[in-house]
Design brief:
Layout (H helix, E strand, L loop, with lengths): L18 H12 L8 E4 L2 E4 L4 H17 L16 E3 L2 E4 L2 E3 L2 H8 L1
């Protein structure tokens, strides 16, 4: 409860009409210099981009520093580090860019 006597959420609840928009706006405020450069955020998905291990470590440190500053927490069970390629928002991302998702291409090849 806030000092004013009003209740406030500690975490973003499911089902609120503008929860997604509000969350995205907050991520834009928490990571203003990182988004678009080393970080991409869409709803509750985040990806830290890197070219080599040194960049990866430096970028993660910067993202964790910002998250700590705003008292954000990440679920370790949902975090994956050091991946050179993977799915993000239904697309397959690699160091070369966006490629065709093999799961979606199977329908054409079979």
């Amino acid at each position: 409860m806030a000092p004013s006597g009003n209740y406030y959420y500690n975490v973003m609840p499911f089902g609120l009409k503008n929860a997604g928009t509000t969350y995205q706006r907050m991520m834009n405020k928490v990571f203003p210099g990182e988004i678009g450069d080393m970080l991409e955020v869409y709803m509750d998905d985040m990806i830290v981009k890197f070219r080599d291990e040194i960049d990866h470590t430096a970028h993660l440190c910067k993202v964790f520093e910002q998250a700590r500053k705003y008292k954000m927490r990440f679920n370790p069970e949902k975090c994956i580090f050091g991946v050179r390629a993977g799915k993000f928002l239904g697309f397959y991302l690699t160091e070369r860019g966006i490629e065709a998702n093999p799961d979606k291409c199977r329908a054409f090849t079979e």
